[in-house]
């Protein structure tokens, strides 16, 4: 017994010494790229199913190349095209349907989160010829199916460029900034429906369907841009806040041969979140939503006469999610995903819109649909069947039988399938394993080859002080909530530690996941090595635990989520190694809204809070996101105001830091300014920082380093 005690004391001492000898992560390293992971960038399978392409960047000289690899041998077959004097460094590529041409993007500049302007070239794979599409910076170029033409948007108008003659035809002429947009989306569609390109070629290249936005009546928002000139200027754009006018959206059909454009009558459609051509070149699918977004229709448009029929309709008491999973099979029957049975699953419908089969079912969520192998009648997908914090890849017959788990490592698995479904490249990571890329057999899941494994990063991290994420659940308000905890590297259960909570908490989101580190995780590791206990809890309203768990927050954003974080903090404070008088919380965007509310409504629990780019009233946020969960302020005023933190600044007791970028086009700095004014009038002490001209991500140059240095110092001083 005596010898065993001596050995335990020796082991504890040895482990402490070993930990002390390891380096502590620094903020400079986090934001300098020291822990950057190697990836397979912009991977696309070739139509032959035998090869795939990767966009490779040479960080040494800044050049780029599009390289082709063989699936079976994993050897590089050829460099398809590389940057040169004729083609500057390109950052993205897109093949034509027949793979005869490639569009290359150069000199790209962002507009908003997803939209960008750029100089684009067409590369002819056979002749190796290079053609610039336009001398102007354009948006969203798309090759026709045969690779002979390119449709694109410039200055809110749609154009077609013919490659052989190098001639350009203007299709629309009414586009103008702030009023009419043709072929690309407005700000709110881009941000909340997640797409920019609002036009599409049909399968034989004879027609283009496109959307027209009339945002004349949409209120405009302005931001001061400080820049480096003597006088600032105002940047104005149309931004519909909750309850205000949205753009009026129309669907148009352009006929290539006749050069005529006709409007398609979609009846009472309020939103058009997706358009997609079927395999039949005369049939276009259109998804429409009502303003509350709880009634979705899938329409079929006959492009010959523009007649419209309803294929199917889906309703929900809360809202219906929009995805990109709609896939038309050879006969134009289609795959669809839905939460109709309480969990997100795959459904197969006939081309007449009648249900043929629910392909997957169970108390778990389908998180990605990968495709359908017509020869084997096999559907491939990703799901949470192995636990809501994990992801695995599965196959199942379209009749719902012969389901097979194709990945075996516990963590987050994602797949890129070859065009003929012979292989898939699996991307795996976990909380302890950086990204690994392997070649796998699609029929069995068998791992055939290791492609890349980030072993260099793994070895480097062995020299740093790291603490494992300990995954568990915590019973709060009648639910078992997913949680992870990162303990100090020299953790001693007999000591007390300050508790620092992180969360996002937005509808359908997930932070507690068994996947590799983000930049926030490295920062949390740094804090843990300095003696902080870092915890994240996914409360009610977050995703991947069923429809009811996610949608319980409907019309009450910030109520149940806040209750869960406060209750979790109280329960964690009962642990013997938690100092109940030193509890902090932080978050960004929705997480900033949450951390502010928690600090105020949980002022007997939290001593400190940090809010980065927070929403402080949903009245200030956009129509599509906000009304999806809250309806309009006119319909639900109490839902908006009872959880808007600037309405109760007098509740502030703890230390509060609020941070915002003045150029945030998403969550406007207005949110923070109103919070500041409320706190000033309540005579409350707080800290704040505004980063000039920075957007919602608050980055550029040393900005992120400065921000996280400020937050770190605030924690050290106040927790």
**Helix run count:** 12
Roughly how much helix do the residues carry, as a percent range? Answer: 10-25%
Cα-to-Cα separation, first versus last residue: 41 Å
Stretches where pLDDT falls below 50 for ≥5 residues? 1-18
Strand order of the largest sheet: 36-37-39-38-40-41-42-43
Count of DSSP strands: 43
Mind describing the biggest β-sheet?
A: 8 strands, mixed
Estimated share of beta-strand residues: 35-45%
Per the principal axes of the C-alpha atoms, what is the gross shape? globular
Indicate the topology.
Blueprint: H1 2-21, H2 27-32, E1 44-45, E2 51-57, E3 64-70, E4 76-82, E5 90-95, E6 101-110, E7 116-124, E8 130-132, E9 139-143, E10 149-154, E11 157-162, E12 167-170, E13 180-182, H3 187-192, E14 199-201, E15 207-214, E16 220-225, E17 233-238, E18 248-255, E19 260-264, E20 271-277, E21 283-289, E22 295-302, E23 307-315, E24 327-328, E25 334-338, E26 345-349, E27 355-358, E28 366-373, E29 378-383, E30 392-397, E31 404-405, E32 412-417, E33 423-429, E34 436-441, E35 447-452, H4 455-461, E36 469-476, E37 479-486, E38 497-502, H5 519-529, E39 533-538, H6 547-551, H7 560-573, E40 578-588, H8 590-601, E41 608-612, H9 623-630, H10 637-641, E42 655-661, H11 670-681, E43 687-691, H12 703-718
Parallel strand pairs: 38-39, 38-40, 40-41, 41-42, 42-43
Antiparallel strand pairs: 1-2, 2-3, 3-4, 5-6, 6-7, 7-8, 9-10, 10-11, 11-12, 13-15, 14-15, 15-18, 16-17, 18-19, 20-21, 21-22, 22-23, 24-25, 25-26, 26-27, 28-29, 29-30, 30-31, 32-33, 33-34, 34-35, 36-37, 37-39
Helix pairs in contact: 7-8
């Amino acid at each position: 017994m005596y010898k065993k005690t001596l050995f335990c004391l020796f082991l504890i001492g040895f482990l402490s010494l070993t930990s002390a000898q390891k380096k502590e992560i620094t903020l400079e390293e986090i934001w300098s790229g020291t822990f950057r992971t190697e990836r397979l960038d912009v991977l696309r399978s070739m139509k032959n199913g035998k090869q795939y392409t990767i966009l490779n960047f040479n960080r040494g000289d800044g050049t780029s190349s599009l390289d082709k690899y063989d699936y079976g041998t994993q050897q590089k077959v050829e460099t398809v095209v590389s940057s040169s004097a004729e083609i500057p460094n390109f950052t993205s590529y897109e093949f034509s349907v027949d793979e005869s041409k490639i569009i290359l993007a150069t000199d790209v500049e962002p507009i908003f989160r997803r939209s960008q302007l750029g100089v684009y070239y067409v590369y002819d794979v056979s002749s190796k010829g290079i053609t610039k599409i336009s001398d102007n910076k354009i948006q969203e170029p798309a090759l026709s199916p045969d690779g002979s033409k390119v449709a694109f948007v410039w200055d809110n108008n749609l154009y077609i460029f013919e490659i052989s003659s190098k001639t350009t035809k203007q299709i629309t002429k009414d586009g103008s900034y702030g009023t009419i947009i043709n072929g690309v989306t407005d700000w709110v569609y881009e941000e909340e429906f997640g797409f920019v390109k609002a036009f599409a070629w049909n399968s034989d290249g004879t027609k283009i369907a496109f959307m027209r936005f009339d945002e004349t009546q949409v209120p405009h928002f302005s931001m001061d841009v400080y820049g480096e000139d003597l006088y600032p200027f105002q940047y104005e754009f149309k931004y519909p806040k909750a309850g205000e006018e949205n753009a009026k959206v129309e669907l148009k059909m352009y006929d290539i041969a006749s050069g005529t454009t006709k409007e398609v009558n979609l009846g009472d459609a309020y939103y058009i979140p997706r358009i997609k051509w079927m395999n039949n070149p005369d049939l276009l699918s259109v998804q429409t939503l009502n303003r509350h977004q709880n009634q979705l229709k899938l329409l079929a448009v006959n492009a010959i006469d523009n007649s419209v029929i309803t294929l199917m309709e889906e309703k929900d008491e809360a809202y219906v999610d929009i995805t990109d999973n709609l896939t038309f099979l050879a006969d134009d029957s289609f795959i669809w995903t839905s939460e109709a049975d309480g969990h997100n699953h795959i459904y197969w419908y006939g081309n007449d819109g009648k249900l043929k089969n629910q392909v997957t079912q169970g108390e778990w969520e389908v998180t990605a649909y990968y495709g359908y192998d017509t020869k084997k009648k096999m559907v491939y997908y990703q799901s949470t069947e192995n636990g809501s914090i994990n992801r695995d890849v599965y196959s199942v017959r379209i009749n719902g039988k012969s389901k097979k788990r194709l990945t075996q490592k516990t963590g987050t698995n994602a797949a890129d399938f070859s065009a003929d479904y012979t292989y898939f490249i699996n991307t795996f990571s976990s909380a302890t394993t950086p990204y690994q890329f392997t070649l796998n057999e699609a029929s069995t899941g068998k791992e055939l080859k290791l492609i890349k494994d980030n072993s260099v990063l793994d070895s480097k991290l062995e020299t740093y002080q790291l603490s494992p994420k300990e995954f568990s659940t915590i019973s709060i308000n009648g639910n078992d909530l997913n949680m992870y905890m990162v303990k100090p590297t020299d953790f001693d259960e007999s000591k007390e530690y300050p508790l620092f909570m992180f969360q996002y908490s937005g509808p359908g989101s997930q932070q507690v996941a068994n996947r590799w580190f983000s930049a926030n995780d490295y920062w949390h590791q740094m804090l843990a090595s300095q003696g902080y206990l870092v915890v994240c809890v996914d409360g009610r309203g977050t995703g991947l635990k069923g429809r009811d768990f996610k949608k319980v927050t409907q019309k009450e954003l910030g109520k149940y989520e806040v209750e869960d974080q406060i209750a979790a903090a109280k329960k964690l404070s009962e642990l013997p190694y938690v100092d109940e008088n030193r509890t902090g919380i932080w978050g960004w965007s929705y997480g900033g809204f949450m951390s502010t509310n928690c600090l105020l409504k949980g002022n007997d629990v939290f001593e400190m809070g940090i809010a980065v780019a927070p929403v402080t009233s949903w009245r200030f946020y956009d129509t599509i996101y906000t009304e999806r969960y809250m309806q309009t302020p006119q319909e639900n005023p109490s839902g908006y105001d009872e959880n808007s933190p600037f309405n109760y600044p007098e509740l502030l007791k703890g230390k509060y830091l609020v941070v915002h970028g003045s150029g945030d086009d998403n969550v406007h700095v207005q949110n923070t300014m109103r919070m500041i004014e409320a706190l000033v009038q309540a005579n409350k002490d707080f800290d704040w920082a505004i980063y000039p001209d920075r957007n919602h991500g608050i980055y550029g140059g040393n900005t992120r380093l400065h921000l996280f240095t400020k937050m770190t110092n605030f924690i050290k001083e106040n927790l």
